[in-house]
Amino acid sequence: MSSSSSSAAAMDVGGIFEHSKELDRLRKEQDVVLSEINRIHKKLQSTPEMVEKSGDNLLSRLRTLYVQAKDLAENEMNTSNMLVGQLDTLLQPGLPAVPAAQRKKIEVSEQKKKRVKADSEIPRLSPAASIRIQLDNAASLKGERVAARVRADDAEKDEWLVVKVIHFDRETKEFEVLDEDEDEGNVQRKYKLPMSRIIPFPKRGEPSSAQDFPLGSHVLAVYPTTTALYKATVVNPHRKRKTDDYLLEFDDDEGDDGCLPQRAVPFDEVVALPEGYRQ
Fold first, then answer.
1. What is the pLDDT of residues 47-72, one digit of tens each?
2. How far, in Å, CA of 190 to CA of 277, rounded?
3. Is the pTM of this model over 0.90?
C-alpha cells in the first residue's frame, strides 16, 4: 500500500476517534438536560398546583429544555452519520482493517450513542395529562401511610406527622387524613390538606423504591418510637442490606455525651427534606 493511502487511513482513524469524543460530550450535555426535565416532572407530580402558580414560566422552561434535547439529539445523529461514513471508507477493499483495539473503542461509542437515543425518548405529556396522572397517583394513596404537614402555612414552625389517607377529592385536590395517635382527649384527629402538604413514603417491602441519599444529605424522617417526622442528616449513605435502614443524626437530638446519636430508621420512614422546611 502506498504511503499516501496509509496516511489517508490514519487520518480517517483519527477522525473516528475525534467524533467518538464528540458523541461522549453530547451525551453528557444531554444527561444534564434530561436530568433537569425529570426534576421538573417530579416537582409537577408532587405539587401539581405549581402549574397554576407558575403557569407559562414553568411550561416555557420545559419547552426550552425539550428544544435543547432535540438539538443535541440531532447533533448526535449528524456526528454518528459522519462516523458511519468514515467507517465505510476504512472498510473499502484494498484498505487495511482497523486494529481490534481501535474497533473495540468504536463499538463502545456506538453503544453509548444508542443509550443517548433511548434516554432522549422521554414521553412528552401535555400539562392536562400530567395533572391527570398526578391526581390518579394521589387517589391511589387511599389507606396508605404518608407524611403530612399539619400546621397552617403561616405557622412559625412546620409539624410533620405520619397519617393515614382516608380520601382524596379530585375536585378540591385535597386529602382527608387521619392521625391514628390519640390526643389527650382520646380522640384521633382528622385533617383536610392540599397535595402540597403530603409526601408519600417509599413502598413498604420494596427497598428499591427508596432514594439513596448521599452522605450529609438532609432528610425528613420518623423519629424512632414516635409518629412525628424531624429533620435529620444522613451519616451513612449505604443502607444496611439486612434491614434496609438509614443511619441518621436528628437535629437537636443531643445525647448524654453532648453528641448527636446515630439512629437507624427504616427506609419507608424517610423522605427528602421539603423545600422551605421551617424548624
1. 665 555 555 566 677 777 777 777 77
2. 23
3. no
